[in-house]
């Protein structure tokens, strides 16, 4: 069920009007030295700012199935001399970068694109550090001027249900704007 809408190139300036990646990353607790994972990263809208924030003592892992997006991301990282980004062209269902190391695992408007979102979320459980968190920023399941078709979007309830099925505990669901919501989850203790 990979709908692939995330494979097209977003105009970053237009997207920044709707989402400020630096503010969002700061608000979710990404900081100097963090290990951040951007699953379904496209060409790095959140990856690049995260790499700047985590600095040389942090790490950013980014994966996407679209090789062209990864190449654009690598080029941006090279232009900014960001050496803390590790990229892979890979399906999220098989992406496990490390065990118990991630401070933040981030899904930016992509959960509906995965063939098996539950498996992707189970991978999150493997990769999260004991105090780490999963962040799912997604489109609301309402009609919007842009974004993926309404039929493939997950409502906040559908997303939280999947996160629970994967064995994680939702600690917050919040409204980000008229079009987006964000779910925060942690490991069950």
Concise structural overview:
By secondary structure, the chain is an alpha/beta fold.
Summarize the topology.
Blueprint (H helix, E strand, L loop, with lengths): L11 H7 L2 H7 L7 E5 L7 H8 L4 E6 L2 H13 L5 E5 L12 E7 L8 H11 E12 L16 H10 L2 E8 L4 E8 L2
Parallel strand pairs: 1-2, 1-4, 2-3, 4-5
Antiparallel strand pairs: 5-7, 6-7
Please describe what this structure looks like.
The protein has helices at 12-18, 21-27, 47-54, 67-79, 117-127, 156-165; strands at residues 35-39, 59-64, 85-89, 102-108, 128-139, 168-175, 180-187. With 189 residues, it is an alpha/beta fold. The chain has a single domain (5-187), classed as Vaccinia Virus protein VP39 (Rossmann fold, 3-Layer(aba) Sandwich), CATH 3.40.50.150. Strands 3-2-1-4-5-7-6 form a 7-stranded mixed β-sheet, sandwiched between helices. A hairpin with a 4-residue loop joins strand 6 (168-175) and strand 7 (180-187). The longest helix is centred in the middle third of the chain and has 13 residues, at 67-79. It starts with 11 loop residues before the first helix and ends with a strand.
């Amino acid at each position: 069920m990979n709908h692939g809408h995330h494979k097209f190139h977003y105009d970053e300036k237009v997207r920044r009007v709707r989402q400020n990646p630096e503010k969002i990353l700061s608000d979710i607790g990404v900081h100097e030295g963090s290990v951040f994972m951007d699953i379904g990263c496209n060409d790095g809208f959140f990856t690049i700012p995260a790499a700047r924030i985590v600095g040389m003592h942090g790490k950013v892992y980014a994966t996407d199935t679209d090789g062209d997006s990864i190449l654009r991301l690598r080029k941006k990282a090279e232009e900014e001399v960001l050496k803390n980004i590790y990229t892979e062209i890979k399906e999220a269902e098989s992406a496990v970068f490390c065990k118990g190391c991630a401070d933040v695992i981030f899904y930016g408007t992509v959960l509906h694109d995965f063939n098996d979102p539950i498996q992707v979320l189970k991978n999150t459980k493997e990769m999260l550090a004991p105090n780490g968190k999963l962040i799912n920023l997604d489109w609301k399941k309402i009609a919007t001027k842009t974004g993926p078709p309404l039929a493939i979007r997950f409502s906040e309830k559908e997303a939280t249900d999947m996160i629970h099925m994967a064995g994680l505990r939702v600690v917050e669901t919040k409204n980000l704007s008229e079009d987006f919501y964000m779910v925060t989850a942690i490991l069950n203790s």
